[in-house]
Amino acid sequence: MLHIRPSNFHECIHNPLYSLSFRILTSNLKPLSHLSSQHLFFPHSDHHRLLPPQQPMADASGDAKDIEKLYEYGERLNEAKDKSQNEDDYKNIIASATSTNIKARQLAAQLIPRFFKFFPGLSGTAVDAHIDLCEAEELGIRVQAIRGLPLFCKDTPEHIPKIVDILAQLLIAENVERDAVHKALLSLLRQDVKASLTALFKHIESVDEPIADDKPIADDNRERTLIFIRDKVFPIKSELLKPQEQMERHITDLIKKSLQDVTGAEFKMFMDFLKSLNIFGDKAPTERVQELIEIIESQADLDAPFDVSDGDHIDRLISCLYMALPFFLRGASSSKFINYLNKNIIPIFDKLPEERKVDLLKNLAECSPYATPQDSRNILPSIVQLLKKYMPARKTGEEMNFTYVECLLYTFHHLAHKAPNATNSLCGYKIVTGQPSDRLGEDFSEFYKDFTERLKCVEELAKATMKKLTQGMAQQNKTMATAISDEEKATIKTQKQNATTGLRTCNNILAMTQPLHSKSPSFIGDKKINLSWKEAVKTVAPSTNATGVKRAGSTTNGSGNYANKRGRGGGGNQLVHRAFEGISHGGRGGGGGQGRGWGRRGRGRGRGYR
Predict the structure, then answer these.
(1) What is the pLDDT of residues 234-246, one digit of tens each?
(2) Per-residue pLDDT at 557
(3) H/E element, 380
(4) How far is CA 147 from CA 109, 227, 354, 518, 594, in A?
(5) How far is CA 71 from CA 68, 196, 247, in A?
(6) Phi and psi of 305, rounded to 5°?
């Protein structure tokens, strides 16, 4: 049987602090066991009809009389001008909720809520009896009782939070019963969206850890509530959220409270919904966009110390940084993320899991155009150190990670564009801004020599790799022509795609190293470079003056002039290997780099991102 209220219900119902409180909160409550599939089987034969134990089957004439009496009670109440004079009729209707007659209880499930508002003195008894009907073994009675729940609030809206609370608990039902719950909830949402949403979100927000026996039920109920909100509420937000600005603000506040304990997928779902609200739309002021960034920053735990062994925190940090990128583009500050990376992550970069390093560098590269001049100056020394680590000073036969170098060069250019003279003491350049930070009187020539030698080595390796990739693609074209099976063709197609990406990576590297040989280089601060993992942008017409217009793919994305030049030296490397072997390398997971998603983190701190 379904039990969704304390046993001393009659005492609670008359206490204003507990009126209509049916939540499963105490250990003496039984689980919602009747909703399992084994209790949804009803034999067709009356001979096998399920009846309460040790109770004789009512004869047909008795059943008919019970139904006839219920109709009489209902007709008298319906016709009475002063319905309070017919209290006995309503009491008899309530009493029929415990009848052995299935049809009588179904009829009671219709009549109890219909006349509920006329008998406030019987409200506790009436609701108690109706909830008994929601607990019935018979599916038809439960469905009828669920359909009647919104009627308790039609003329007494003060009951909406408690009835929504009941219905939210019933979301774990299946099939026709679940459909009835959905319709009942939507009915109440349309009646009072604010009160209904508030009650509904209480099933998502972090609460005290449930006792062991009820934990699976509580988790399942929370998940079903999330699914209902995602599938039934979010799609009709324009219909429900009125007045618009007020209600969009209200649901935003509810979502914020719910984010203390969410999985990665849940967090993304909520953020996608918030982005769709008008208050955060394209015309929203910067402070509104900053509000979204602050939500993401909180989820990333940027105020918490970093533990490199905490894979969950690493996943959340990288995933949240990726989610933040579109908001940086719209004017929100990237300072908190960049300063956290500079202080906590880059110094221990080598200790990060290998599969997460490239994700981090890609996200850092994409957010670098939005760094402030001060943030750029602060993080540039760390970026230069990483660059020197991954740009070899001479060819040693070891593989160079081209993706790392592409990311770091892109980041370096955009940061140096914001704080150019900071590179004087880091790379030995001679950039004059007239500021003391130029440090022109100091000798950094050794830094310049070291940096440019590394650039030359990188260029030679990139050119040699491009030569091999181009040769490999020619061979792949021949192999494709003779391939027979779909599996062979799919493998070759993957190899060609990887080779194309490899060429784009190498072309980008060469396009970014070339200007850095000058003693006073011009750093790339626009969108000329289209990063290799991003889709190539088709330009309608070439433009040489306007910034923000991406070059056509032939310039830096795999088919430019560098591809036709002969490279010197350079052994095998990972770009060539994966192009020939069809191995996907580097990236931020499926769905365009949305991170790996995180699992449950535990109450009070949120649900993990692993």
Answers:
(1) 999 999 999 999 9
(2) 40
(3) helix 373-390
(4) 9, 20, 55, 77, 40
(5) 5, 33, 43
(6) -65, 155
Q: How far apart are CA 550 and CA 537, in angstroms?
A: 7
Count of Cβ atoms closer than 10 Å to residue 341 Cβ:
23
The identity of residue 554, as a single letter, is S
The 8-class DSSP code of residue 178 comes to H
Instruction: Report the alpha-carbon distance of residue 234 to residue 271 in Å, rounded.
Output: 12
For residue 12, the model assigns a pLDDT of: 39
Six-digit token pair at 254?
């509810």
DSSP per-residue string spanning 545-597: S-TT-PPPHHHHSSSSGGGGSPP------HHHHHHHHT---S---HHHH----
Coil, helix or strand for 279? helix
Nearest Cα to Cα of residue 461 among 506, 419, 410, 501: 506
- Contact between 315 and 610 under an 8 Å Cβ cutoff? The reply is yes
Q: Residue 214: CB partners within 8 Å, gap ≥ 6?
A: 24, 27, 29, 31
**Closest by alpha carbon to 576, among 471, 459, 481?**
471
pLDDT < 70 positions in the chain: 1-62, 206-218, 397, 536-610
Q: Which residue from 172, 177, 201, 176 is spatially nearest to 189, judged by alpha carbons?
A: 201
Tell me the angle at which helices 402-418 and 354-367 cross, rounded to the nearest 10 degrees. Answer: 30
Residues 529, 512 contacting (CB under 8 angstroms):
yes
State the Cα angle at 549 between 548 and 554, rounded to 5°.
Answer: 135
Tokens of 607: 């649900």
Can you give 26-83 as a three-state secondary structure string? CCCCCCCHHHCHHHCCCCCCHHHCCCCCCCCCCCHHHHHHHHHHHHHHHHHHHHCCCH
Q: How confident is the model at residue 24, as a pLDDT? A: 32
User: Which segments of 115-243 does DSSP mark as H helices, in order?
Assistant: 123-134, 139-148, 151-154, 160-169, 175-191, 193-201, 215-228, 237-240
Are the CB atoms for 346 and 352 separated by under 8 Å? no
- What gap in Å lies between CA 185 and CA 149, rounded to an integer? 9
Dihedral sign (CA 355, 361, 366, 370): positive
State pTM to two decimals.
0.76
Are the C-beta atoms of residues 393 and 446 closer than 8 Å to each other?
A: no
Give yes or no for a contact between 428 and 451, defined as CB atoms under 8 angstroms apart: yes
